[in-house]
Amino acid sequence: MNGIWYYVIAFMVIWTIAIVFKDKLTDYGVEVNFPLLMWKTQRLRGFIDRLANCAPRFWKAYMNLGIVISTVFMILMAVALVYSLKMVMDTPTVSLIVPGVEVPGSPIFIPLFSGLIGLATVLIVHEFSHGILARVEKIKINSIGLLLFAILPGAFVEPDEEELNSLRRASRMRIYVAGSMANLTLAAIALIIMLALSSFVIPAVFHEEGVEITRLTEDGNAINYLSEGMIIKSINNVTVNDSASYQQAITTLRPNETVDIKTDQGEYSFQLKTNPLNRSLGFMGVQAESHNVISEAFDNQIYTPLLWILMPLNELLFWIYFLNFAIGTFNLLPMKPLDGGHLFENLLSFIMPKNAYKPIVTFMSFFMGIIIVVSLVVGLVGTPF
Predict the structure, then answer these.
(1) What is the C-alpha separation between 206 and 294, in angstroms, rounded?
(2) What is the distance between the alpha carbons of residues 367 and 133, in angstroms, rounded to a whole number?
């Protein structure tokens, strides 16, 4: 079943329950005001307080560094987004992130299970970090919870707005950058562990024997001939022993030519299409990964079944890294209501009066938003000419 239907069914069930039992759910902190559904609680405030009080000096010092790091990423992201205007009609650089769903215009497919776990880590560390820094700065937290805006899920920590606005600028900026800094930190940790596994542990335990087809996309012809789970042995008589030889083989493919694929289940020939990311290359519509076989030294041992956990664990770590980095840096764009917009506004307030920096922040928010919308629309429906 197409991954989009899981979301359709889930959202229909959630909203049906929310509307039918609206009055009863109010007793449990649920607010139903379509298209906004919110669940608020105060139970986690004690946990956040304990984290904030265990090392307040560390949190402040770390987020002082975070202001510098976040400012650098804010500038880089803004420049990259503006630069993307040059290629937006050929390769949109902004796309939706929907685990388990093939999003038009996006070259990335995020698996459902590991993608949802990755997104959960993004929300949890991001919002908890905002809460921790708010308490470090002695700001009261009114509530913590989850929300659903129509079909868009999210989480929030709600600090007291008046107390937040009364803080010094440096204190406010530490709170604003806390979420993205937590995402970047988790991304770095996941990346280090993933590289250790993929560079040392997995090569010692497994060895490659060809590549396995993990997914077939609807915009290629391979879906009419090949099947998921097949092991590719050769492409146009070029032997495929591992992922490196597979990558080398597919760079020789050209649009509209006929490709010959030899698999463990037979030989197949079909015509290639044009690669949407590189018009000079042929496109099969195949996503594949290394087909790993456990090494003899680790085979037939009492612990052997446990070793197979390493492969999905490595994949999960990759998506935790990717999603935390991608969303954490996106959130630093200099546009409101993103945290980067608040950081940008506070930085400008150091060098100019309010009546000067407010129009600049408004313009940047509008300008960045237009680029994002255009890129999303082009990716979803294609260019109008």
Answers:
(1) 4
(2) 30
The backbone torsions φ and ψ at residue 28, rounded to the nearest 5 degrees and listed phi first, read -105, 15
**Taking a C-beta distance cutoff of 8 angstroms, is the pair 52, 128 a contact?**
no
pLDDT value, residue 90 = 59
Euclidean distance between CA atoms 362 and 214, whole angstroms: 45
Residue 29, token pair as written in the block: 């902190």
Q: What is the pLDDT of residues 5-47, one digit of tens each?
A: 777 888 889 989 998 988 888 888 898 888 889 898 888 888 9
Can you name the residues that pair with 31 across neighbouring β-strands? 38
| pLDDT tens digit sequence for 325-377 | 999 999 999 999 899 999 999 999 999 998 999 999 999 999 999 988 888 88
Return the domain boundaries, the chain. Answer: 35-196+321-381, 218-284
Residue 333 structure tokens = 């764009």
DSSP string, 59-115: HHHHHHHHHHHHHHHHHHHHHHHHHGGGTTTTS-S-----TTS--TT-S----HHHH
How far is the CA of 33 from the CAs of 22, 23, 211, in angstroms? 9, 12, 50
What would the CATH number be for the domain defined by 218-284?
2.30.42.10
Which residues are CB-contacts of 265 (< 8 A; sequence separation ≥ 6)? 227, 230, 231
